[in-house]
Amino acid sequence: MNTTELETRRHLAAAFRWAARLDMHEATANHFSAAVSDDGSQFLLNPRGRHFSRVCASDLLLLDAAATGSEAIHPAADPTAWYLHAHLHQLVPRARVILHTHMPYTTTLTCLRDFEFLPLDQNACRFYGRVAYDRDYSGMALDDNEGARVARLLGDDKSVLFLANHGVLVVGATVAEAFDELYYLEKAAQLQVLALSTGQALQLVPHETAALACKQWQEYPQAAELHFAELLAILDADSSDYAS
């Protein structure tokens, strides 16, 4: 096992632990994955039936996306995770890390008819023009066509996909980057749910300003890395078994 895979295992295990702490998980469902080969074909995935709060680095399955289209699904892998994550790693090279959750506030917004993420606050502006939408919930992802369809929806420039009546999917270049996106997305979604619940008129950020703030977010130095380094430090101090 090379140094890159070891570090990715540790970081992905930390993401699971923090998703549980922040109530972004759901029972033993939901899936995170991270590519460990240069071509993105080999990737890590959480095993079926393991609670996020108990995931350790050594638990993560090493799978090969080249097996898509065959019946050779790893027996410890959740089928819905395989059909989504394997295709995305194979078809969307920039999706080195894929985080799929049913976190409550963002999922609430996916259940609103024709809803589009609002430029309502500074955190929301981070995602301006970067959210794709799947409007047609069609049940669980249990065939190869579903994974390929979701890959097409992400396109070349979207890092977030709202899955209608289902949840959200976030992609990134590193675990730190993807988890930082997931964290701020849920924070912004929480604020939108609260603001919408007042029934009052919303004061949206103008489009030009939202685009500027999005650019500033993308260029802000080391924000995701600094955030994730602190999350790792907290786990190292009180739950170091995550790295085992």
Question: Would you mind describing this structure in some detail?
Answer:
It is a single chain. The protein has one domain (3-243): L-fuculose-1-phosphate Aldolase. Helix content is 43%, strand content 13%. The protein contains eight helices and seven strands. It has helices at 3-21, 79-91, 104-110, 122-125, 144-154, 175-197, 207-219, 223-238; strands spanning 31-35, 42-45, 61-64, 97-101, 131-134, 160-163, 167-172. It is globular and about 55 Å long. The two termini are 14 Å apart. The mean pLDDT is 93.
What's this model, at a glance?
The chain is an alpha+beta fold and 244 residues long. It contains eight helices and seven strands. It has a single domain, classed as Class II aldolase/adducin N-terminal domain (L-fuculose-1-phosphate Aldolase, 3-Layer(aba) Sandwich), CATH 3.40.225.10.
Write the layout of secondary structure elements.
Elements: H1 3-21, E1 31-35, E2 42-45, E3 61-64, H2 79-91, E4 97-101, H3 104-110, H4 122-125, E5 131-134, H5 144-154, E6 160-163, E7 167-172, H6 175-197, H7 207-219, H8 223-238
Parallel strand pairs: 5-6
Antiparallel strand pairs: 1-2, 1-4, 2-3, 4-7, 6-7
The N- to C-terminal Cα distance equals 14 Å
CATH superfamily descriptor: Class II aldolase/adducin N-terminal domain
Strand % is: 5-15%
Let me know the largest β-sheet. 7 strands, mixed
Helix share bin: 40-55%
Order of helices and strands: HEEEHEHHEHEEHHH
Count of distinct strands: 7
CATH class: Alpha Beta
What is the number of helices? 8
Indicate the mean pLDDT.
93
What best-fitting shape do the alpha-carbon axes yield? globular
